[in-house]
Amino acid sequence: MHSIVLDGVSFHYRDAFGRRANEGIVGVNLSLEQGKVTCLLGANGSGKSTIIKLVLGFAYPTDGRIFKPRNMRFSYIGDGGRSLYSYMNLDENVRYSYALRGIALRNGHDEELERLSRLFGLIDGGMKVSAMSRGMRQKAAIICALLLPHDFLIADEPTLGLDGPSQMEFESILRCEVGLGRGVCLSTNDMPMARRISDRMMFIEGGRLIER
Amino acid sequence: MRLIGFELSSMFKRRIKNPLGLVFEGMTVGCFLLLIEKVLGDSGDAAIAVKQVMLISSVLALPALQGLYRMMSEELSSGTAEALFQVEKGPLYALLARDASSVASMLLIMPFVLIPMRLSDCFDAALFAKYAFPVLLMRIGMLGMGLILGSLTLLFRRTATVVNVSSIIMVVTSLGVGIGKGFLNILARMTPNGLLAVMMQNGGNPSGMLLPLSLVSALWIAFGLLAYNLSVRRAKRFGFLISN
Question: Do B237 and A60 touch (CB under 8 A)?
Fold first, then answer.
């Protein structure tokens, strides 16, 4: 099993001229392991998303280092389905993500997409993402991420806007992911859900990891 | 290649759904070409025909100049940039695929450009084929300039004015306006579209244009990639790709 290690990682947001805008995270030491669900908990603006974006490589640490296996494949569920193209439908979004990675669609892609859509009660009928409600967009983002080949699933507030049954389905899927040897890291404010699904809970306050 | 295939098929589907848009765009470009002909009425048929090729080449180069700027400004604000940056060099691949799709889209409207051209006295379709390679090289070079503008957008976001002014300068220069002698002429020769315009205006042979255009375009592509890499590195260091 591989793991992602954050070693004394700090990150400060800056403006275009390099002046410090606001503090992101400070001196975070953390290890995210495959085969486990790690939940990042904390108030809004505490730095959960910053950690996730650093792990995904959307930003470089100001201090410290992040160690991750070179060929590790990530799948990312963005907050509110914002990472989906609004002028495409779900299937087109999935196909675009595959094309962007230069990989062919898996055999049985259509069946898998249909199965997941049914599981989450997402009857989109080719609906464009722009026409979807917030909850539907979130479901679409989850399905899109699950369909991409990955070793680590990373999610930023993945259950916001989800209805009860879909949330339960999502939780059971996360356990399946772990069963398949994949890693899961998600940020959430939903403490009961974090208790139910996580192997490790990390609390972040003011950009600092305060408890393990 | 898969991404180019995806973009091309999406573009074809979009175009098929809206054939009137295709006709309208083609006819509009054709009407502009006719307008040029009227404005330059006493310049001689051959000179006007060359100017028409120059205008079409500048229209063809506009998406190259504005491509990365549009992608960055739209995708950073909508949050979809996260999807692109999940893949190393994802924005560059996406840019190339969208650019190929925009070229194919322009080719689709060309038959409709020819409809108003039936009223033209000077239009010479053979000239378009004759200058195809120089125009292609110029367009590749303009991608490099577009990379620089897009890189600025990644760092400063509000660069619409710079991009719009650059586009206007490009179209005007492509028509040979302001390219006289001296400083402006030297300046124009440093850009792919300006160099092509100068050479076409001087009645250069297309085969003689290939080497200078290749050199200038290669230089701009190199500068563009350098600017892109530097700006992405800086954007990642400063947290510009993180949309909360």
Answer: yes
